[in-house]
Design goal:
Helices cover 40% and strands 13% of the residues. The chain has 141 residues and is an alpha/beta fold. Strands 2-1-3-4 form a 4-stranded parallel β-sheet, with helices on both faces. Helix 4 links the parallel strand 3 (79-82) and strand 4.
Length: 141
Amino acid sequence: MTPEKILVVCLGNICRSPTGERLLQHYLPQKIVRSAGLAAVVNGQAHPLSRRIAAEHQISLDNHRPQQLTAALMDEFDLILVMEEWQRLKAQALNPQAAHKVELFADKKIPDPYGHDEEAFRRVFKQMDAAARRWAEELGQ
């Protein structure tokens, strides 16, 4: 079964996962794609550098509102994509029944750019864009 609902997860839901969400929405417009964080910065928004770099690539992070990953939220999605192996383990522990749906967004860790310079954000965007394109190809787009 091809997943129709995809959840992208990182730590704070302000840098990587909103970028991944919007990239997948761009490449897979027929899918429902959302994002969440293991320790979401609730009432925040996407990081300014993430917003700017995404906008340079015609990807908007406007109106993004971080949300906390919950077991109930995981139940709503067919595929859950995380940035790092430890996040996969945390998500699987949060909802063991959904453990089979949790996969890595890329073939290797996507490092958290938070607290780093603009170049780190640019590297992460490039890595995420390549991974989103691979997912789009794999999921039939």
